[in-house]
Amino acid sequence: MTASPELATTQSASPELLRSVFRQHAAGVAVITAQGEKPVGFTATSLNSVAAEPPLISFGVGASSSSWPVIAGAGHIGVHILGEHQQDLAATFARSGADRFALPTSWRSGPEGVPLLDGVLAWLVCRIIDRVPAGDHRIVIAEAVVGDPAGAGRPLLYHQGRFNALRD
Description:
With about 170 residues, this protein is mostly beta strands. It contains 3 helices and 12 strands, in the order H-E-E-E-E-E-H-E-H-E-E-E-E-E-E. It has helices spanning about 15-25, 70-75, 85-95; strands spanning about 25-30, 30-35, 40-45, 50, 55-60, 75-80, 105-110, 115, 120-135, 135-150, 155-160, 160-165. Strand 4 and strand 5 form a beta hairpin. The mean pLDDT is about 90.
């Protein structure tokens, strides 16, 4: 019996396999922010809608991330859905060691003191209700408190390790 072509490249589970598989999964791009002694934020492709009633979201954050200590103690976070015109902003918030809130990043202090980014497609301020350990990450579950869905434009996507725009 010979292996089928579909199984010829089967690999054992590993971090590399997981990354390779998820490079095939196009995901929306968000930036999560929180306020500590100074504002923190990071680019996330793990944002999910969890429930409509109550309105819950979730996202993953690395336990070794520079943002994690602030998020671990924060009561509220900001969730920003990025538009295709914001590839540079996504890259800034994905870059380790960057001063993410310096110019040219345009932002303001929003409800609950959460840093809100300007020019996004939509944003939410959410109250954190749980932080769940998950391997080398934490899954944060939060309830939407206030937001604005009225930004203009098309969403930014992440696929094959790059930020992309939708094609018509």
